[in-house]
Write a structure and sequence with these properties.
The chain has twelve helices and ten strands. The protein is an alpha/beta fold and about 325 residues long. The model has no long low-confidence stretch (mean pLDDT about 90). The structure holds beta-D-ribofuranose and calcium ion. Beta-D-ribofuranose binds next to helix 1, helix 6 and helix 11. Pfam families: IU_nuc_hydro (PF01156). InterPro entries: Inosine/uridine_hydrolase_dom (IPR001910), IUN_hydrolase (IPR052775), Ribo_hydro-like (IPR036452).
């Protein structure tokens, strides 16, 4: 089995991606580490506890991580696309004891400890801003070497952003961390960009079938997505909002699917990359160095074509939970 750490800013698509990991018979989730992003890190922790509880997998340890980016005081806290709490603002199940269910150890220390214990065996799937990962390499410079592989949802391949003209949300929230990770993580790295997700969007008919399955996980996703995807459909029709993709796009699930089953990725480009830190319009944008001008020794795999049928099947399976301990 693949040993997996999921680093997440648990919004709606993170929840879906995590359910995919929990349902995958070939994955063992060692830990979920939380980071700010779609909501505050406190909200993210609570969202993870909810997801694990719906899937009856409360035994998986949850760690609290970074509350904000490495640099910047005026960063906008989080997007409201998934609601203020990251899960559509529809749940009324506040758990006053949630803090007691979070591990004492900081998320970054936990990542380092697990990667050291299972050297070269851990697949890290990063679904939010990359702050925890950047801190990990600063605390332990050998951290990237100790990882088996890294999957990232973030960045863009054609200069198209969803929160700024050129930058995708996860990279825009903490460009310095994205820069550090893409410069210093020399482990095999797979990038799921914004455009990859949009190009491989699923239909709204598929979405209806997905969330109307008769399982607790499907009912949960139906509830938390109700406002968000209704808004998304409308927004796309009127081209009012660039954040949502063309159709049903569960962004983080594409990265998770690549980890669960590499054959969901039909084509990818092997290319050195760098994150722009200075541009007045392009800060946080991912640049693909197709001409190898940067003379970097490390290249990443930027996914370009998805097997949408296989991906859809993984999504469908992921909501048939709980079904496994
Ligand atoms: C990414 O931004 C977040 O809001 C989503 O959860 C996803 O990780 C998409 O740009
Ligand atoms: Ca996310």
């Amino acid at each position: 089995n693949k040993l997996v750490i999921i680093d997440t800013d648990c919004g709606i698509d993170d929840a879906q991606a995590i359910m995919m990991a929990l349902a995958a018979p070939n994955l063992e989730v060692l830990a979920v580490t939380c980071v700010f992003g779609n909501a505050t890190v406190e909200n993210v922790c609570q969202n993870i506890l909810r997801v694990l509880s719906v899937c009856d997998r409360q035994g998986i340890p949850v760690f609290q991580g970074s509350a904000g980016p490495l640099v910047g005081v005026n960063w906008s806290p989080f997007s409201d696309h998934f609601g203020g709490d990251g899960l559509g603002d529809v749940l009324e199940d506040k758990d006053p004891q949630w803090k007691e269910k979070i591990q004492q150890e900081h998320a970054v220390n936990a990542m380092i400890r697990l990667a050291s214990k299972y050297e070269n065996q851990v697949s890290l799937v990063a679904l939010g801003p990359l702050t925890n990962l950047a801190l990990a390499v600063r605390l332990d410079p050998r951290f990237p070497q100790k990882l088996g592989e890294l999957f990232i949802m973030g960045g863009n391949m054609e200069g198209k952003g969803n929160v700024t003209v050129c930058a995708e949300f996860n990279f825009a929230m903490d460009p310095e961390s994205a820069y550090v990770v893409l410069e210093e993580f020399i482990c095999p790295t797979y990038l799921t960009t914004w455009e990859y997700c949009c190009r491989n969007a699923l239909t709204w008919e598929f979405f209806e079938e997905l969330v109307n399955q008769d399982f607790p996980a499907a009912r949960f996703m139906k509830a938390v997505t109700s406002k968000c995807w209704a808004y998304s459909k409308e927004a796309m029709k009127n081209k009012r909002d660039v954040y949502f993709g063309p159709g049903f796009v569960s962004y983080d699930s594409y990265a998770m699917a690549a980890c669960v089953d590499g054959s969901t990725v039909l084509e990818s480009i092997e290319c050195p990359v760098r994150v722009e830190l200075q541009g007045s319009m392009s800060r946080g944008m991912l640049v693909l160095d197709r001409t190898k001008s940067l003379k970097k020794s490390h290249a990443v795999r930027v996914m370009s074509k998805c097997n949408v049928k296989k991906f859809g099947r993984l999504l469908m399976e992921s909501l048939k939970q709980p079904w496994r301990k």
